[in-house]
Design a protein that fits this description.
The complex is a heterotrimer. Chain A is an alpha+beta fold. Chain A is 62% helix and 12% strand. Chain A is built from 18 helices and 13 strands. Chain A starts with a helix and ends with a helix. About 3% of the residues of chain A have low confidence. Chain B is α/β, with parallel strands linked by helices. Chain B is built from seven helices and ten strands. Chain C is mostly helical. Chain C contains seven helices and three strands, in the order αβααββαααα. In chain C, strands 1-3-2 form a three-stranded antiparallel beta sheet. Chain C is elongated. The chains are: A alpha+beta, B alpha/beta, C mainly alpha. Chains A and B meet through α13, α15, α16 and α18 of A and α2 and α3 of B.
Chain lengths: 611, 246, 174
């Protein structure tokens, strides 16, 4: 027991001695843990909300609709009410497709005529205000969110002479918004079975009284179509029902498809987030490797000291492991907490559904997974230096540089021909090749991700300019699917860039540690502070430039794989911009510690080595 | 002796560490003149400030007070860049711990100051071979420091200090980490340098190293307390050293 | 000159005075320059009187250095004894130490000043011995002897340093 306490005490002491390092490692593991938790939190997150909404609104098993005026079609639709397997139904309801005018917006909208009394199947649940009445309409919640509509506002539903072209004067009756509601029967735009004559998809839904919808239909030369909600004896059989009755005029959709498609909104986010978190995980691994590598020398010396004082290998490993475990456990907890609070931001499951994601981050298997990952990192980070230190004889471990840099004859010869800053920089970079490779990989991953994001944004801009005016776009800005994707992308871009910065700082820090002695000697021999500082920048750039260059094709490949779009025209300026920005940041992050240490008198730096 | 003949001229040099109760005066008001070609040895117990003094003379550290001239240039307020230039062109330093680059061969280590001073790789290499010969390590040119003995490493370090033909060589306990055999090697080298007219300031514990000097200064608690001139006196008879004359 | 040294030098073979002199010179190198030639003969004379050395005249009366000296059996015994002895030249620091004490107690002089001048002298000697040692070929007899002298001087200098610190502190604390 006493030994355990001793180990704990020594571990805590060491962590306290280097708070900056501990903080860096914590940050690296925590951000990876956070992303992992968010990704896990998004698993099947909308199953619940959809189910909740369906239950609360008597959601239909099948929705059937026709998009013509003809009485024959209407008859066919109505006949479905008595089809085998159908237990209940509501409708058919009149559908209109007028233009909505409110707050300066002017856009097509779907209007469904309803009874003031509740229907047996699909009775939308009012979340604010009341249900339809004369002169009053109820707006579907996601539409209300999009247009920022509130109960009590007045809207106009009408037509214009020029059809649906924007900028036309719209005339029609005004209504008051008396309520806002949700329904499980609302089809998200991406899968909408309605094709608006103007080419726009169904953007949103407004419920009005039967009388109002019929008047609108009259003003527009007839209803747009009719819709019917059906409940089946066996809910699971909805897809086969749909298959059996689908025809040219009659379009049906099952509740399973609805659920999946609602989930789709989230799952596209999830794809993006999983990709993002894999990239982040790569970066986090690089961070850990960099940090471990940087601490290796210190750790080896500490191990040497402890061994010299008589500590058994067990105690030594125990101390290293305890430090890492402490950090990992704290980081994992931090990551989980961040994930828990960030997930709802991203998974507001479309305002069209009720309920928030049922606390999946408290899901035990997710928590277990995150902790397991963090502990695995701790073990690896301990194992490697411990094994190496154990194999090194104590004397060597205590020596001036327990891990002498590998000699690179070629770079030594080549560098002698270069001007001084490059000479020093090349030699510095070739001293620790593994670290240079890690830096390069980190830069490659970051640049790749940024390029992918850039391409995505360019795609967005292209779409924006393609569809002129109006508010709703198919899979573009304005489409909730799209907006959600962009939000997620923003979050993960921020996380990625943060982690990349952490990595760059780590790499520089580790290099500074490693080369403190050599840099001091070089300065004692007459290298000026500028030359010394530039050498550090050069060294970091040497490893980062290939990484940045490789990152570009990597990013293009990533975009094609994930984005499901063929790559649009690449803006060369944008790409060059990303590469230059990345390299500039690397140079800046190298310059700061470099110039700080370069200004310090040489004697200090040398002194600290001989202690 | 005018100021111009002096390689080193220091007046009232001070180096303080810490503050208030923890104030330590490592160097406390030192005056020193070193003429061209002189070898000056500074001896004293550990902690007396002799290493700090050497660091000040070599521009590796900045004095808290006082004036310091190197070959007529005032340096105590120089920028780090100017000090670096000085270390490149005018001063060579030899450390107790050698401080050779582990991944460079003996020759590459010696070349480094020349390369830093902007000489061509070929000229640097030529100079390195010259110096290797001077210190008697021609056949070890391609060896890494790990393959050299302590004495050999220090000789490489001395050769490195001479790479740019400095006006002044400063040696901080050059034999501190060496056994007696290696000490002799270094001793011989220092004598030869002295005979060749090199100006040397050596800080040492070892009376034998001190005995190679023209002047020996004793230092304690940051101050000079004694100075002995070892040359310029009448040469005694060696026979007096043994007591066989009864 | 220690009698036994001369005695032992004869052990190789009966020799003339100047041959002994040569052998000594070789063994002492530059340190032998101060050797007084006369002393050898004086010592030889004493040894002869004590019966440890015998004299052989190559016939007739002639100059002293023609005489050939040889070891008597008693002499040989003495040599063997001497070789087996482990007495070591005593470091005679007592005299210097007492010098300092007397100077202080009698108020005659500053002990630190005495120490300093002694140090100076020893340093000069060290310098000379060192230079001479470096001029000798490696591993010659003389080089070895000089190395020993250098090391002893170094040890004495260290002691003088300690003395100086000591006496300075004493003076300060008075």
């Amino acid at each position: 027991m006493g030994k355990l306490l001793l180990v704990l005490r020594l571990a805590m002491k060491d962590l306290r001695r280097n708070p900056a390092e501990a903080a860096l490692l914590l940050m690296a593991i925590a951000s990876a843990a956070a992303t992992l938790s968010i990704a896990l939190a998004l698993r099947g997150v909308t199953d619940h909300p959809y189910a909740t909404t369906r239950a609360a609104t008597e959601g239909p098993d099948v929705i059937a609709a026709v998009q013509t005026n003809s009485s024959a079609a209407l008859a066919g639709l109505t006949a479905l009410k008595h089809a085998p397997g159908v237990t209940r139904s509501s409708g058919p309801y009149v559908l209109d497709f007028p233009t909505l005018v409110v707050n300066g917006h002017q856009d097509p909208v779907l209007v469904e005529g309803r009874d003031t009394t509740p229907a047996t199947v699909d009775q939308p649940k009012v979340t604010a205000g009341t249900w339809v009445r004369n002169g009053g309409v109820v707006v579907e919640r996601s539409l209300a969110d999009l247009l920022d509509l509130k109960v009590g506002e007045r809207i106009t539903l009408g037509t214009s002479q020029g059809g649906y072209a924007p900028g036309q004067k719209v005339v029609g009756p005004t209504f008051e918004i008396v309520g806002i509601a949700v329904s499980a029967a609302v089809q998200p735009p991406a899968i909408s079975t309605y094709a608006h004559p103007s080419g726009f998809p169904q953007p949103g839904l407004i419920w009005a009284t039967r009388a109002a919808s019929e008047r609108l239909a009259l003003a527009m030369g007839g209803p747009f179509g009719y819709t019917l909600n059906l409940d089946l004896a066996s809910a699971p059989s909805a897809p086969s029902f749909v298959a059996a009755h689908q025809s040219g005029e009659l379009s049906l959709i099952s509740w399973q498809t609805m659920a999946t498609k609602n989930g789709d909104i989230i799952s596209i986010e999830q794809t993006i987030l999983l990709t993002g978190s894999s990239l982040l995980a790569l970066l986090a691994l690089a961070s850990v490797a960099l940090l471990v590598g940087g601490r290796m020398e210190q750790q080896t010396r500490r191990v040497g000291l402890l061994k010299a004082v008589g500590a058994s290998p067990g105690i030594v490993t125990g101390i290293l492991l305890t430090e890492q475990l402490l950090l990992s456990v704290v980081a994992a907890t931090l990551g989980l907490v961040i994930g828990r609070f960030a997930a709802p931001f991203l998974t507001n499951p479309g305002a069209s559904l009720l309920g928030t994601p049922g606390a999946p981050s408290l899901d035990l298997s997710a928590i277990f997974l995150v902790f397991a990952a963090a502990i695995a990192v701790a073990v690896i980070a301990t194992f490697v230096p411990a094994v190496r230190a154990a194999r090194t004889s104590t004397v060597v471990a205590l020596a001036d540089s327990p891990r002498p840099p590998r000699r690179a004859r070629l770079s030594i010869t080549i560098s002698s021909r270069l001007p001084v800053p490059l000479l020093l920089g090349v030699r510095l970079a070739s001293r620790r090749r593994r670290r240079a490779a890690l830096s390069a990989a980190s830069v490659a991953v970051t640049v790749g991700a940024l390029v992918a994001v850039l391409l995505f944004r360019e795609h967005a801009n292209a779409l924006e300019s393609e569809s002129a005016g109006g508010l709703y776009r198919f899979s573009g800005p304005g489409d909730p699917l799209w907006e959600r994707g962009m939000d997620v992308m923003l979050v993960f871009t921020i996380a990625l860039v943060t982690l990349a910065l952490v990595n760059a700082i780590l790499a520089t820090w580790a290099t500074v540690q490693d080369t403190r002695r050599s840099a001091a000697i070089e300065r004692a021999l007459g290298a000026s502070p500028e030359q010394s500082g530039s050498a550090m920048i050069v060294a970091q750039l040497i490893s980062s430039i290939p990484g940045a260059v490789v990152g570009v094709p990597l990013g293009v490949a990533l975009y094609s794989a994930v984005g499901r779009h063929s790559s649009t025209s690449l803006s060369v300026v944008g790409l060059v911009g990303v590469v230059v920005a990345a390299l500039f940041t690397v140079a800046l992050l190298a310059a700061i510690p470099a110039s700080a240490s370069a200004r310090r008198p040489v004697a200090e730096a040398l002194q600290s080595e001989t202690i | 002796m005018t100021t111009d003949d002096l390689i080193v001229r220091a007046r009232g040099l001070r180096r303080d560490y810490g503050r208030d109760e923890s104030l330590v005066r490592a160097v406390d008001g030192v005056d020193l003149d070193v003429a061209s070609g002189e070898t000056v040895a500074v001896m004293g117990p550990s902690g007396c400030g002799k290493s700090t003094l050497l660091h000040l003379l070599g521009g590796l550290d900045r004095p808290s007070d006082g004036e310091l001239w190197l070959y007529g240039h005032r340096i105590e307020r120089s920028s780090e860049r100017a000090l670096a230039r000085m270390r490149r062109k005018e001063v060579g330093f030899v450390f107790q711990a050698f401080h050779l680059m582990d991944e460079l061969t003996a020759r590459e280590n010696i070349e480094l100051p020349a390369l830093l001073a902007g000489r061509s790789p070929r000229a640097a290499r030529r100079r390195a071979f010259e110096l290797l010969e001077q210190v008697g390590l021609q056949d070890r040119a391609g060896h890494l420091p790990s393959a050299l003995s302590g004495g050999q490493r220090q000789r490489v370090a001395i050769a490195r200090a001479l790479a740019n033909e400095p006006l002044l060589v400063l040696a901080d306990e050059p034999t501190g980490n060496l056994d007696s055999v290696a000490t002799l090697e270094v001793l011989r080298l220092l004598e030869r340098l002295h005979d060749g007219g090199q100006t040397l300031v050596i800080v040492t514990h070892d009376e034998r190293i001190a005995a190679t000097a023209d002047r020996l200064i004793s230092m304690r608690d940051g101050c000079f307390i004694d100075e002995t001139r070892l040359t310029g006196g009448s040469r005694g008879h060696l026979g007096e050293l043994i007591g066989l004359d009864a | 000159m220690q009698q036994e040294v001369v005695l032992a030098m004869l052990a190789k073979e009966p020799s003339q005075g100047f041959q002994l002199r040569a052998r000594l010179d070789e063994a002492l190198g530059p340190l032998g320059e101060g050797l007084n030639a006369g002393h050898i003969y004086v010592t030889l004379g004493r040894l002869e009187k004590s019966g440890l050395v015998g004299l052989e005249s190559p016939g007739g009366v002639g100059p002293t250095d023609r005489k050939i000296y040889y070891l008597t059996p008693v002499g040989q015994e003495r040599v063997a004894e001497w070789l087996a002895e482990v007495s070591w030249p005593k470091p005679d620091l007592a005299e210097f130490h007492l010098k300092l004490v007397a100077a202080t107690q009698g108020g005659l002089a500053d002990p630190v000043a005495i120490i300093d001048s002694q140090r100076r002298e020893l340093l000069r000697r060290l310098r000379e011995a060192q230079r001479a040692a470096m001029e000798e070929p490696d591993r010659s007899d003389a080089a070895l002897l000089l190395e020993g002298i250098v090391l002893r001087l170094q040890a004495d200098l260290r002691w003088l340093e300690t003395c100086e610190r000591n006496w300075t502190d004493r003076r300060r604390n008075q």
